[in-house]
Amino acid sequence: xxxxxxxxxxxxxxxxxxxxxxxxxxxxxxxxxxxxxxxxxxxxxxxxxxxxxxxxxxxxxxxxxxxxxxxxxxxxxxxxxxxxxxxxxxxxxxxxxxxxxxxxxxxxxxxxxxxxxxxxxxxxxxxxxxxxxxxxxxxxxxxxxxxxxxxxxxxxxxxxxxxxxxxxxxxxxxxxxxxxxxxxxxxxxxxxxxxxxxxxxxxxxxxxxxxxxxxxxxxxxxxxxxxxxxxxxxxxxxxxxxxxxxxxxxxxxxxxxxxxxxxxxxxxxxxxxxxxxxxxxxxxxxxxxxxxxxxxxxxxxxxxxxxxxxxxxxxxxxxxxxxxxxxxxxxxxxxxxxxxxxxxxxxxxxxxxxxxxxxxxxxxxxxxxxxxxxxxxxxxxxxxxxxxxxxxxxxxxxxxxxxxxxxxxxxxxxxxxxxxxxxxxxxxxxxxxxxxxxxxxxxxxxxxxxxxxxxxxxxxxxxxxxxxxxxxxxxxxxxxxxxxxxxxxxxxxxxxxxxxxxxxxxxxxxxxxxxxxxxxxxxxxxxxxxxxxxxxxxxxxxxxxxxxxxxxxxxxxxxxxxxxxxxxxxxxxxxxxxxxxxxxxxxxxxxxxxxxxxxxxxxxxxxxxxxxxxxxxxxxxxxxxxxxxxxxxxxxxxxxxxxxxxxxxxxxxxxxxxxxxxxxxxxxxxxxxxxxxxxxxxxxxxxxxxxxxxxxxxxxxxxxxxxxxxxxxxxxxxxxxxxxxxxxxxxxxxxxxxxxxxxxxxxxxxxxx
Amino acid sequence: xxxxxxxxxxxxxxxxxxxxxxxxxxxxxxxxxxxxxxxxxxxxxxxxxxxxxxxxxxxxxxxxxxxxxxxxxxxxxxxxxxxxxxxxxxxxxxxxxxxxxxxxxxxxxxxxxxxxxxxxxxxxxxxxxxxxxxxxxxxxxxxxxxxxxxxxxxxxxxxxxxxxxxxxxxxxxxxxxxxxxxxxxxxxxxxxxxxxxxxxxxxxxxxxxxxxxxxxxxxxxxxxxxxxxxxxxxxxxxxxxxxxxxxxxxxxxxxxxxxxxxxxxxxxxxxxxxxxxxxxxxxxxxxxxxxxxxxxxxxxxxxxxxxxxx
Lengths: 753, 310
Known about the structure:
The complex is a heterodimer of chains A (753) and B (310).
Chain A: H1 6-13, H2 34-44, H3 48-59, H4 65-74, H5 78-91, H6 96-108, H7 112-125, H8 130-142, H9 148-156, H10 161-177, H11 181-198, H12 203-215, H13 222-230, H14 236-247, H15 251-264, H16 269-281, H17 285-298, H18 303-314, E1 318-323, E2 331-336, H19 340-362, E3 370-375, H20 378-386, E4 395-397, E5 401-405, H21 417-433, H22 440-454, H23 464-471, H24 481-486, H25 493-512, H26 514-525, H27 530-538, H28 542-562, H29 564-579, H30 583-596, H31 606-616, H32 620-632, H33 638-650, H34 654-665, H35 672-684, H36 688-700, H37 706-719, H38 723-736, H39 741-750
Parallel strand pairs in A: 2-3, 3-5
Antiparallel strand pairs in A: 1-2, 4-5
Helix pairs in contact in A: 2-3, 3-4, 4-5, 5-6, 6-7, 6-8, 7-8, 8-9, 8-10, 9-10, 10-11, 10-12, 11-12, 12-13, 12-14, 14-15, 14-16, 15-16, 16-17, 17-18, 18-20, 19-21, 19-36, 21-22, 22-25, 23-28, 25-26, 25-28, 26-27, 29-30, 30-31, 31-32, 32-33, 33-34, 34-35, 35-36, 35-37, 36-37, 37-38, 37-39, ...
Chain B: H1 11-27, E1 31-37, H2 43-61, E2 67-72, H3 79-92, E3 97-103, E4 106-108, E5 113-115, E6 122-123, H4 124-133, E7 139-143, H5 152-155, E8 161-164, H6 177-184, E9 197-199, H7 200-217, E10 227-229, E11 237-240, H8 252-272, H9 279-309
Parallel strand pairs in B: 1-2, 1-3, 3-7, 7-8
Antiparallel strand pairs in B: 4-5, 5-6, 8-10, 9-11
């Protein structure tokens, strides 16, 4: 007897108010009612009208509520299916098969939490229930949760052939996602045997076999023909392989496959959804909307579809800025209207600089316009990237389209937006130069290395967690480095993998020269894997490469790794000195820490504390030197840098003060005062064109002191010889403050005395 | 390509015009400034409140004309002392303007606002009653305490200007508004019309902006939303930035000053009529006046320099 949770029942009763959903998938014996199976066989063969008629007969008869639920579900009436399942369980509370199918219905409706509750309820009564284990594994696998493994193992070890078949297919999919081709094929072969033995439809098996061949580089798989021979309107034959193109970032190819899927199965909502999301990644916004709307009409429960459509609706709040220089690659920015005037000028300049830098360095010329989108709301960026919120990254590159957090989307302490944009622009090159065949680790490695080498806040700065990973020998062999990104096995491994990849690029350039990095890209573009690339380009095997890299790391970071313990001791001593308000002690400990890890410029960097202490002791020049060293090594704490710029300007070093303040723009472009000060310094340095940009941005930030903002603009225009614009801004300033003497003086000067 | 300058105008400018037209009448009146420093509760807040009161007192003492500054702090800042001071002001019946600052912590229990002082707290009713007795309508109230929004209904009156750190009594966290408001009184950045004075409106807008920027910059939900009541906020000056030059009583310089005053009034009158004119007409009329005003200011400066050389 099943004790059903009353609250759960109440919750389930209010679901499914809409009356459509995606197709019912193959159940491999989870349903045993002969009448339903007869209809299912017609459906699996693509005999849609006959199957519908068959299901309608069940619905209108007295086959019992469980069968009627299956029929209603197949007829895309989930509300009615839900009611029948409830009725079935009221009539037969111990019918676990119906209970699990009810869970499957919720899973199909994207109500994952409720579905999981039902599976748990079934497993509480019957701990080995194989289809409940399979259902739970599917839910958890979709959200990449490691707990999926336990449920999957239980289903794989089941004696129920159907659940085992489903588990083998799930396992094959997961193995393929992890590029474990052999294990995936073994699972598929066994699934194929079971399917044939029990006369289940082979469609999912064929689609995954086609996907496996696609992963292995074969596009014209015979398994697609086999699937279409079985059911000519089976869209999964193309949609399933397309998924593996998406996860290897071959979005345009994926679009073509999804297009084929919806062409032969126009009601396949998931294919329309994925087609829409991937069209968005290719900046085909109108077509994306069409397919997402179609997906929504077929399956209004999908959060990815709904989120993406809502995001598209919000595009009316964004402004597109085009920078079309006939001699260069066009650039388009999509920025929130409230931020466009502030971020736009810097983003255009940085993208343009990055294109110039990377074109020369990697010998590849961009062939299409670059589109950069920035989202003030991080969750909008996450939806833009994958249709769902909760993404833990700062930016994403889909090819010629880059999406990222806006600088207003995160606190300045955690986000260098300029560096992120530079990183993403490097991805544009590595992806496009290799026709998207570059592996994740090398693309990330080049991007990280370019942050350090040529980015707006350059300098190699490794978090301590990476030094600890070196100490604990957690770096992966180069041939397995992708796993550190895709399926990390310990907390923080993704960051460690980013840094390792960056260091590998540094190693390659240092030992073999920069041209080899370009040659490696060429190798990947030719379809080589990493083993072939390091063999063909560097004449090394994986083991030799790793040995060389480890020696490089040891040479450059070995001393820092050995100093970690001592560094921590000094950090404790520094904290004690801070508590005791002992600036001499703080300065001494900080200096010793800096000597051990000179590149440590995170927000708790000893450089910052050293500068504070030295200033407190009246040793301002030394404090400035400490902050200069911090800045030179890539430190970007805005308050400290503005203080440094002030000191430099006071000392007459206008050029360096400008450099320091300009670097703060890549962290905190919404600082009004910064733009005013930087513009003033630029004017002082006879650089009115750059000053004008700063003053325009300052005005766009709607400053409290509007008079000074207009006056500054008037000065810049006057310096540039544009008297008319200068006078217009003076008019704005003097209209508010008629007696403002600096503006009056400039007005008289322009008026000829 | 440079952006074309915006030719739209905002409400700030109208406030500035009003200030220019009416400033002298208020500035010359008998003006009492009362500053009450509440309990800090801990050394950090006590230090902050002391610093704010020091700045506000300095600003009050910078004001021209007949200004009396009363500061209640430490042991002298009691409910009894506050009520006694206001009784004396009421009895003297000489105040033509009153500015009252409340710098400290406040609380609100869904019924009563209280400003925290040593001994019995000052209630909202105490404050409202004291203000009502002073005998002038030209009253400015600045209360930077937590929950100060609860005072709005009690102290708002037609001609008063009331600046509060919070929009309601339910915003109970310690506020940042006071620090920014006090800073505004010595800040050129707050002086938006560049007339070397800071009005209530200018100080409020400066501080409110800083409060908003603070919370936004730190990625926090704002726990305070400053509010300003009263339409004459730009009429009342709270601080003068720098010392005004003495005005000559005779000679060429006097004539120049008179010409400048006449022209300034002319410009102010034109600014008040701006809605009746097209943007082009308005600017066409304004520009020559601004150029002339600039020339007069230059002539005054030259004359003053020449006198200095003598």
